[in-house]
């Protein structure tokens, strides 16, 4: 079996994210009650995202592993009526994603030679940003049930695909308006995502082109 390395980890992550997003849409349409399957897809996808981290960086691998285990255990416990650890689950997933986006940015932008893996990595970072803001909105919805128009307050996995859709519509600044924030806190995170989404594309494209030109001159 081929091992993940830093030279091809983004390729595996890209396909894992596509499978996750498509799986969420299929489950939402045909089997909305299949929440355990969706949670499993999320954990597996995020586990793939850290598979290429250098094994010598044990602190990072241990931190990411701890956050994933916390999210998995608290998420499973939330299926029982006596436990509601949704905020803990979402916080763990959110911490994982933001820390991993930071690590991926360093891997993609601080390079002297652009490869296919780096280009795919820049796309993965964009997808991870949309996923991170999804969990951020779900966390806001847990704390402020009336934070969004067009979203009912129900278990976060039941809202996952609708919030995922809203996150990417916001990230790409399309904004259809079928879901909208109603509270100032939610509105702040929405316009922050729109700003970061626009600037990310401009900065990332400029950086990769600049590195590519320098590479060509050499």
Automatic annotation (TrEMBL):
Domain Potassium channel per the UniProt entry, residue ranges: 134-210
Gene3D superfamilies (UniProt xref): 1.10.287.70
Native source species: Vibrio gallaecicus
InterPro entries named among the record's database cross-references: K_chnl_dom
UniProt-listed SUPFAM superfamilies: Voltage-gated potassium channels (SSF81324)
Keywords: Ion channel, Ion transport, Membrane, Transmembrane, Transmembrane helix, Transport
GO biological process: monoatomic ion transmembrane transport
Transmembrane segments: 12-31, 37-54, 63-80, 86-105, 117-144, 156-176, 188-211
Keyword Membrane: yes
Protein name according to UniProt: Potassium channel family protein
């Amino acid at each position: 079996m081929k091992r993940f390395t830093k030279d091809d980890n983004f390729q595996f992550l890209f396909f894992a994210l596509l499978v996750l997003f498509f799986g969420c849409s299929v489950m939402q349409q045909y089997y909305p009650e299949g929440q355990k399957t969706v949670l499993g897809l999320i954990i597996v996808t995020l586990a793939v995202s850290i598979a290429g981290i250098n094994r010598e960086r044990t602190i990072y691998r241990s931190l990411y592993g701890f956050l994933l285990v916390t999210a998995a255990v608290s998420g499973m416990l939330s299926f029982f009526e006596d436990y509601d650890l949704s905020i803990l689950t979402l916080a763990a997933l959110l911490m994982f994603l933001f820390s991993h986006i930071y690590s991926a940015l360093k891997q993609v932008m601080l390079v002297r030679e652009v490869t296919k893996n780096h280009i795919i990595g820049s796309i993965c970072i964009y997808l991870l940003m949309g996923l991170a803001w999804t969990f951020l909105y779900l966390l806001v919805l847990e704390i402020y049930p009336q934070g969004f128009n067009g979203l009912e307050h129900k278990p976060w996995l039941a809202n996952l695909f609708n919030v995922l859709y809203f996150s990417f519509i916001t990230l790409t600044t399309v904004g259809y308006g079928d879901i909208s924030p109603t509270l100032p806190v939610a509105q702040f995170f929405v316009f922050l995502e729109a700003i970061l989404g626009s600037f990310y594309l401009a900065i990332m494209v400029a950086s990769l082109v600049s590195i590519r030109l320098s590479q060509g001159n050499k």
